[in-house]
UniProtKB/TrEMBL annotation:
Gene3D superfamilies: 3.30.230.90. This is Proteasome assembly chaperone 3. InterPro entries: Proteasome_assmbl_chp_3, Psm_Assembly_Chaperone. Coiled coil: none annotated. GO terms for biological process: proteasome assembly. Transmembrane segments: none annotated. PANTHER family: PROTEASOME ASSEMBLY CHAPERONE 3 (PTHR31051:SF1).
């Protein structure tokens, strides 16, 4: 079993990332709260080809056939649910792209992220809104994960 750990301050919030590689799956923990948080498993059928990773700093695109299964816990609200699914999909895609085409182990992602204020939306607007701070945090966490797996 291989284990890698990184810590950075992202947008003034201490952020820890741990990657454990087991024979049957990969576990990735992303925390800003010092706990595991909710666990989401990402899997993909072996028959679905992965696209080649784009040149850095671009992130690989998650495959449409990705399956997300909540295992333990739940995000604090519906907005966080969408963000957590995005984090789990992207983290799993990065792990698969770094592992190669033949390695399709399920990836379990633990997420405990500091809550941020949602951007103001018009009352008639049901679209999901993401703040610039959310975008920057996401990019930096995924960059930290890519550095871990290089």
């Amino acid at each position: 079993m291989a284990s890698i750990q990184r810590a950075r301050v992202i947008n003034d919030v201490p952020t820890n990332l741990i990657v454990h590689s087991f024979g049957d799956r990969i576990v990735i923990s992303i925390t800003q709260l010092g706990k595991i948080g909710c666990l989401i498993q990402a899997s993909i059928p072996s028959s679905i080809p992965l696209l080649p990773p784009p040149p850095p700093p671009a992130l690989p695109s998650p495959p449409t056939a990705i399956s997300l299964t909540p295992l333990v816990g739940h995000p604090p609200d519906s907005r966080s649910q969408t963000l957590f699914n995005l984090y789990a999909s992207q983290a799993a895609t990065i792990a698969w792209s770094k592992a190669g085409q033949l390695n399709r182990r399920p990836v379990i992602v633990g997420l405990a992220l500091k809550r941020t204020k949602a951007p103001m939306a018009h009352s008639d607007d049901d679209d999901f809104m993401v703040s610039e701070n959310d975008r920057e945090t996401f990019k930096q966490i995924m960059s930290m994960l890519m550095d871990c797996l290089d």
